[in-house]
């Protein structure tokens, strides 16, 4: 944790990332996979979770692959030093240009739409070299994990349905394409509880698809997707639980020496090292209600506007407490109220608020509401901060 003196030295508002904890999370998940599966396993960092280039470069330094779901993310991963063969390309909105580039340069490409199947057929007719692809499988996870899936009884919209026979039809269609090899399966489904058991269910369905469609001879990887909890001492052992559940099912049909196990964590690695800090800019009372206006914004920490509390630390010299203080953001929207502080020390202008676990999505989901530029970004290591993105400033003296 940081001291008030350390935070006073920073330009705010800002994000801070604990560099050592970020590295530990990447490395710990990779180590858990190798213990359960063997050396033929990789962490693939979910770029959409936080596409800040410094984080991508840290992921690469920790021997992670990059998992992307759009052409812009694919280009960003290349710019940040990832070779195409170090990129997993997912999602239903791939563009034709990047789709072809990824296929022809050794990226892991998981088919997720009918138009990609059409493109694949066209490419196969023109290509002189073998093309490798994976297929995203859509399963009825809610049936096995009631109340856990985002859509509930409504089916998920990604991938090809296992229950409807669409997976088998797609695999058969790809097998009929000259020079195309079915190299992998992609099994991503996000759940509310993010329980290890959900990944056992996904892995068991992957095993069924492999056995039912005679894929054992061509398969090079099984990609178990993302949606994990983990990171930091509070989640110790979670990476190992996930890896053990997946391996227990997949080893029945896959040789770990021949088939690579992939995972695509985002929040599970980048959330716990992240912080969001800002100062109090004003305090006022309206009809007996205390409002604390800060440099922070709910838009930068709660993109879905659902949270009612945050793991935060208040840095103030005051010792007296107040029954209620409404912590508000800098925007001109009444809804920009972060939370109600109950029985906390009274805040005043210049005090600092530090919110923990701010690394996942809170930077990438922030809407382009132009009232202020994006917060500064720092990393922290061994007592020192390093600035990676400055606050935008206009030099008025030049006007």
Please render the helix and strand layout as text.
Layout: H1 4-8, E1 14-18, H2 19-37, E2 41-46, H3 53-61, E3 65-68, H4 71-79, E4 87-89, H5 96-104, E5 108-111, H6 114-126, E6 131-138, H7 141-144, E7 160-161, H8 166-175, E8 180-186, H9 196-212, E9 221-223, H10 238-250, E10 260-263, H11 267-270, E11 274-286, E12 289-294, E13 312-315, E14 321-328, E15 337-345, E16 352-356, E17 376-381, E18 384-389
Parallel strand pairs: 1-17, 2-3, 2-10, 3-4, 4-5, 5-6, 6-7, 6-8, 8-9, 9-10, 12-14
Antiparallel strand pairs: 1-11, 11-12, 11-16, 13-16, 14-15, 17-18
Helix pairs in contact: 2-10, 9-10
Give the % helix: 25-40%
Q: Shape, please?
A: elongated
Order of helices and strands: HEHEHEHEHEHEHEHEHEHEHEEEEEEEE
User: What count of helical segments does DSSP give?
Assistant: 11
Number of extended strands:
18
Q: Rg, please? A: 23 Å
Tell me the fraction of residues in β-strands, as a range. Answer: 25-35%
Structural class: alpha/beta
- What characterizes the major β-sheet? 9 strands, mixed
- The low-confidence parts are none
Span between termini? 42 Å
Query: In terms of quaternary structure, what is this?
Result: single chain
Let me know the average pLDDT. 93
Give descriptors for this structure.
399 residues; alpha/beta; nine-stranded mixed β-sheet; eight-stranded parallel beta barrel
Report on the structure:
The protein is 28% helix and 26% strand. By secondary structure, it is α/β, with parallel strands linked by helices. Helix 2 packs parallel to helix 10. 45% of the residues are buried. The model has no long low-confidence stretch (mean pLDDT 93).
């Amino acid at each position: 944790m940081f001291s008030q003196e350390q935070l006073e030295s920073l330009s705010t508002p800002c994000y801070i990332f604990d560099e050592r904890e970020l590295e530990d999370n990447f490395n710990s998940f990779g180590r858990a996979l190798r213990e359960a599966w063997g050396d033929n396993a990789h962490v693939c960092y979910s770029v959409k979770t936080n596409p800040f280039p410094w984080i991508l470069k840290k992921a690469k330094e920790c021997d992670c692959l990059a998992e992307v779901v759009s052409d812009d993310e694919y280009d960003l991963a290349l710019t940040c030093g990832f070779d195409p063969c170090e990129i997993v390309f997912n999602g239903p909105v791939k563009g034709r240009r990047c789709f072809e580039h990824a296929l022809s340069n050794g990226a892991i490409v998981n088919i997720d739409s009918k138009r990609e199947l059409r493109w694949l057929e066209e490419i196969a007719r023109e290509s002189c070299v073998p093309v490798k692809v994976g297929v995203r499988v859509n399963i009825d996870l809610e049936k096995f994990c009631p109340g856990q899936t985002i859509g509930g009884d409504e089916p998920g919209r990604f991938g090809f349905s296992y229950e409807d026979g669409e997976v088998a039809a797609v695999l058969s269609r790809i097998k009929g394409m000259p020079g195309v090899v079915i190299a992998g399966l992609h099994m991503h489904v996000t759940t509310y509880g993010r329980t290890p058991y959900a990944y056992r269910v996904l892995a068991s369905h992957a095993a069924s698809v492999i056995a039912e469609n005679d894929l054992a001879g061509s398969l090079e990887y099984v990609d178990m997707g993302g949606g994990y909890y983990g990171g930091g001492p509070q989640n110790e052992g979670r990476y190992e639980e996930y890896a053990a559940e997946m391996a227990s099912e997949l080893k029945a049909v896959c040789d770990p020496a021949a088939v690579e196990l992939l995972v695509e964590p985002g929040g599970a690695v980048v959330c716990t090292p992240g912080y969001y800090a800002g100062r109090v800019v004003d305090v006022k009372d309206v009809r007996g209600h205390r409002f604390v206006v800060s440099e922070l914004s709910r838009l930068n920490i709660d993109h879905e506007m659902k949270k009612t509390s945050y793991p935060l630390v208040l840095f103030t010299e005051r010792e007296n407490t107040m029954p209620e203080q409404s912590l508000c953001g800098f925007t001109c929207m009444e809804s920009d109220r972060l939370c109600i502080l109950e029985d906390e020390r009274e805040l005043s202008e210049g005090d600092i608020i530090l919110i923990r676990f701010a690394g996942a999505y809170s930077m990438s989901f922030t809407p382009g509401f132009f009232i202020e530029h994006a917060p500064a970004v720092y990393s922290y290591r061994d007592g020192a901060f390093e600035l990676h993105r400055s606050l935008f400033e206009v030099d008025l003296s030049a006007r």
